[in-house]
Write a structure and sequence with these properties.
The complex is a heterotrimer. Chain B is mainly α. Chain B has seven helices and no strands. In chain B, helix 2 packs antiparallel against helix 3, helix 2 crosses helix 4 and helix 3 packs across helix 6. Chain C is an alpha/beta fold. The radius of gyration of chain C is 24 Å and the shape is globular.
């Protein structure tokens, strides 16, 4: 009888643990195209400031100036292909919204009054938000967040759960992947999407029950581990004061100048 | 000479900073874990089905509210929901820039709901109050988000119809999730995973 | 010196004592092995020694525990942590930092050690445990053995007098177990006392100076290692049997002429951007037989299981069914029982799980959920919630559910992790029974004792 198994080549050095892929890989290493490598705090600060300014501003010129500056900010950090894809997705969404509004116009008389002139400002604000949030969404890494936590003076009451959250999101993503695979294997050959469409409650159970059980068991185990570590809301999480590099400072100055320009245009608009 | 023992003055700043007397480490760990799970599910569903797909939007809201009901059953303390919403909100803000402007008012709204629930007897009275707390806080948060959406679209308020429809769909998900969470609490008690 | 004097402990709201009348003296620089059947009180004893009792678990504690004259009840949990440090069974759950260095620093910061001192201690600790080059590596990208080393490095930096380890051998392959044994021997030589609770005993042969066998919270046997040489005592106390010599790659008595099964033809696989995990792998898994697959971690055992179940696609080669009904070389049904059973149980009762599983399989006359459950010794548990079952019961249920779909191939990934001797034998019997019901059964395991109990054919990815 021949040998049960034979191989032409066997692995040499241990190949290491299962590589992390998918969403987790994305969160772990989203660095592609991040040419400026701005401090995460600066990105967050600019997003907050610009969102506030966009809400206050009512002059299309002021909003236009901020939008133009934000486009430069975006182009300096995100690949043109990604920007194009994001704007295309936005255009599709806007198109869908316009289509829905047109259809609903047959029911709601008010919707027939929408004019392109009056819709300019809302769309300028939307564009501004996209330009500021896209670098955040593309370049924020979970590992950066531990650093941000160390630099922010947040209450321990918030810092401790945030630390746990940041630490466990990759674990949960891994768990969710395993649950998805386990469900796929167990219910293979039963009709695919049609099977779940007929049994939405079973679908809910098979997704939700393992997640909840895992969560509750992890909460108990981690609480014990945290107590043993001496971790509490009064722990020292290693505070580091923020440090801005010259490129961060330059971007901050340009942002301040843009805001000043927008404020001037807003005042002139009001005076007129 | 006699001296009367005076109670040590409460250091409120420290209590608010560290949660001393309000939460134990195990509560904070549980809140962090549930907030992390809620965000992980949101991220996964956004990637699988797209953020604006009505089915994933409803499912996302359903998972979110069901997890919050379970969390409040495990940590039935005033302030737990506010803390969980704050952590989830900050994470959404740090990672995706979500709710950059509305976050403070969302936190205040949740806190107001929690005081109302405390006035009704507190979360320890049973999971029905956890369901009510999540239902009210999610409603309050949607109203606040609608207000900020109105500010952004004030020149053309008719556009708000779309935002209203999206909010309604996600709140439908919240209601479905509340029912699912409430049923799951009973089952987990039966399994001995949650103690009374 | 660790000293226990007439120690009793009862969990809150429970009538029985979890620990009862324990006495012990462990001098500095000595190692104690604590073993016993599942639920015998091993983890509870570690909870007492680590100070979790009485600081975290508020049961009833009687008697005296002391380490160098100091008692955990008289110190805060954080202060006791400087004296007695615990590594839990799942090291990943203990991590709070994202990288190796951050994890060790966080352990020290939590103990309020000044920043400069913490940094120096962390550097020293990384060097001491051979982790110097891994400081910036994500904790998710470590092997099981490396994860344990990171935890040990953090605990060692606190300079404790007593190190407590809960089932450290449960998830390690033999090489990693031996490596951990050497690390612990070095710590012992530094004067650190060790208390190790484990089901897997024999990797501790050269390390343990004393042995304590628990039965329902009481000391059933206590003494030097040689008491574990008694196979009768091991059986009586539900301990794992002594392992035989490492099995050589073998095939048992040949399968019957014309037997059906699953064939692997020149299978190759590599993760994107990585080297080949294996190349040109060929072989047959026969229906009605149990094949045990072992080998060091990272050599592709679980990947092979994923390939067999269609979760991954091979870079080259193919997997096909042969013999039996259906088109030759066609697709075949397979089921996998994962290590984490929690991910595979969804419904509110054991019966409902089985009914759902049977509904997905081919119709069979007279087949009922009750009958299937009875075959796997689960009949009395039909109305229980699946998540309320013990680890061994859950494993048996998932095997029974996997078989309900009448697969040609059933793959079990590390089914014996954390099982005591009695449950190990039960599991091995269920695996053999599963194979007799028709499918080819592939068991992926590091566990030599399980392999010895159930393998018809044995394959190693090591040689």
């Amino acid at each position: 009888m021949p040998a049960l198994f034979k191989t032409e080549k066997l692995p040499g050095e241990a190949a290491g643990p299962h590589p992390r892929r998918g969403l987790l890989g994305l969160l772990d290493g989203r660095r592609a195209g991040d040419r400026l490598g701005l401090a995460p705090e600066l990105r967050l600060g600019l997003a907050v400031t610009a969102s506030l300014a966009a809400l206050i501003a009512g002059d299309p010129l002021a909003l236009g100036l901020m939008l133009a500056a934000s486009l430069l900010y975006l182009a300096a950090q995100v690949r043109p292909r990604v920007i194009l894809a994001a704007y295309l997705a936005l255009a599709v969404l806007a198109g869908l919204a316009a289509g829905c509004l047109w259809l609903m116009g047959f029911v709601f008389q008010a919707l027939r009054n929408i004019s392109l002139d009056a819709a300019v400002n809302p769309f300028l604000r939307l564009g501004l938000s996209v330009n500021l949030l896209l670098p955040l969404a593309l370049h924020s890494r979970l590992t950066d967040l531990s650093g941000i936590l160390n630099r922010l003076r947040l209450p321990g009451l918030i810092k401790l759960p945030l630390l746990v959250t940041i630490r466990f999101i990759p674990t949960f993503l891994n768990d969710l992947n395993q649950i998805r695979e386990a469900v796929g294997l167990r219910f293979r050959g039963r009709g695919g999407l049609l099977f779940w469409a007929r049994r939405p409650l079973l679908g809910w159970r098979v997704c939700f029950t393992p997640l909840v059980v895992r969560l509750i068991r992890s909460a108990d185990e981690l609480a014990v581990a945290a107590e043993l570590k001496g971790l509490s809301a009064e722990s020292d999480f290693g505070h580091r004061p923020p440090r801005l590099r010259p490129v961060d400072q330059a971007v901050a100055v340009l942002a301040a100048l843009t805001l000043a320009g927008a404020a001037l245009l807003e005042i002139l608009h009001a005076a007129a | 000479m006699s001296t009367s023992a005076r109670p040590a003055p409460v250091n409120w700043r420290r209590a608010l900073w560290t949660g001393r007397g309000l939460f134990e480490t195990r509560d904070l760990v549980t809140i962090g874990l549930f907030a992390g799970a809620a965000k992980a599910v949101t991220l996964m569903l956004a990637l699988v089905g797209g953020g604006m797909n009505p089915v994933t939007m409803i499912l996302k809201s359903a998972v979110f509210s069901a997890l919050w009901v379970l969390l409040l059953t495990k940590v039935p303390k005033t302030g737990a929901l506010t803390l969980a919403n704050t952590v989830a909100g900050l994470l959404g803000f740090f990672l995706l820039g979500q709710a950059v402007i509305s976050l403070p008012s969302l936190i205040l709204a949740t806190l107001a709901v929690e005081f109302l629930i405390a006035a009704l007897g507190g979360l320890a009275r049973g999971p029905h109050l956890a369901v009510l707390a999540v239902a009210l806080s999610e409603l309050a948060m949607r109203l606040i988000n609608l207000f900020f959406a109105y500010l952004a679209m004030r020149e053309q308020p008719e556009l708000m119809i779309m935002v209203l429809m999206i909010s309604a769909a996600s709140y439908l998900g919240i209601l479905l999730g509340l029912f699912g969470g409430w049923k799951m609490v009973g089952e987990l008690r039966h399994a001995g995973l949650i103690q009374d | 010196m660790l000293r226990l004097e007439d120690l009793h402990y009862r969990h809150a709201h429970r009538p029985d004592w979890a620990l009862s009348g324990l006495n012990l003296e462990l001098p500095a620089g000595r190692a104690l092995l604590v073993t016993g059947h599942s639920g015998s009180g091993k983890s509870t004893l570690l909870a007492v020694l680590s100070g979790l009792v009485p600081h975290y678990y508020k049961g009833e504690l009687r008697g005296r525990v002391s380490l160098d004259g100091q008692e955990p009840a008289r110190l805060s949990l954080a202060d006791w942590g400087f004296k007695a440090a615990l590594m839990t069974q799942n090291p990943e759950i203990q991590f709070l930092g994202s990288t190796v260095e951050e994890e060790i620093l966080l352990t020290l910061r939590c103990r309020k050690i000044p920043e400069a001192e913490a940094a120096a201690l962390a550097a020293l600790s990384l060097e001491r445990f051979g982790l110097k080059g891994l400081g910036r590596r994500s904790v998710f990208h470590l092997s099981e053995g490396q994860k344990q080393k990171v935890i040990l490095a953090g605990l060692w930096a606190l300079k404790p007098r007593l190190l407590l380890l809960d089932e450290p051998g449960a998830n390690l392959d033999p090489a990693a177990g031996a490596e951990l044994g050497r690390t612990l021997a070095a710590l012992k030589a530094e004067g650190l006392s060790l208390v190790i609770a484990d089901h897997r005993l024999d990797w501790l042969r050269d390390l343990a100076d004393q042995v304590l066998v628990l039965r329902r919270g009481r000391a059933a046997a206590q003494g030097a290692w040689n008491l574990l040489e008694d196979e009768g005592l091991r059986k009586d106390l539900h301990l794992r049997p002594r392992p035989g010599p490492p099995p050589a790659e073998k095939t048992g008595p040949g399968p019957p002429e014309g037997a059906a099964g699953v064939e692997l033809e020149n299978l190759s696989f590599a993760w994107p951007g990585g080297e080949d995990l294996f190349a040109g792998l060929s072989g047959r898994l026969y229906c009605g037989r149990v094949t045990v697959l072992s080998g060091p971690s990272g050599r592709g055992k679980t990947t092979l299981a994923r390939l067999l179940c269609g979760l991954e696609k091979p870079a080259a080669g193919r997997i096909r069914g042969f013999g039996g009904p259906g088109p030759a070389g066609g697709r075949f049904a397979s089921q996998v029982v994962l290590q984490n059973t929690d991910h595979q149980l969804y419904l509110s009762s054991v019966r409902a799980e089985m009914e759902l599983a049977l509904a997905g399989g081919p119709p069979a006359a007279g087949e009922t959920a009750e009958r299937r459950l009875a075959e796997f010794g689960l009949a009395g548990l039909a109305d229980r919630h699946p998540q309320s079952l013990s680890g061994g019961e859950k494993q048996r249920l998932t095997v029974a559910l996997g078989l309900a779909g009448a697969p040609r191939l059933l793959v079990l990934d590390e089914p014996s992790s954390g099982l005591d001797g009695r449950n190990l034998e039960l599991m091995a019997a269920q695996i053999r029974k599963a194979a007799r019901k028709g499918p080819a059964v592939l068991v992926i395991t590091h566990d030599r004792q399980l392999a010895a109990l159930c393998a018809d054919d044995y394959l190693s990815l090591e040689t």
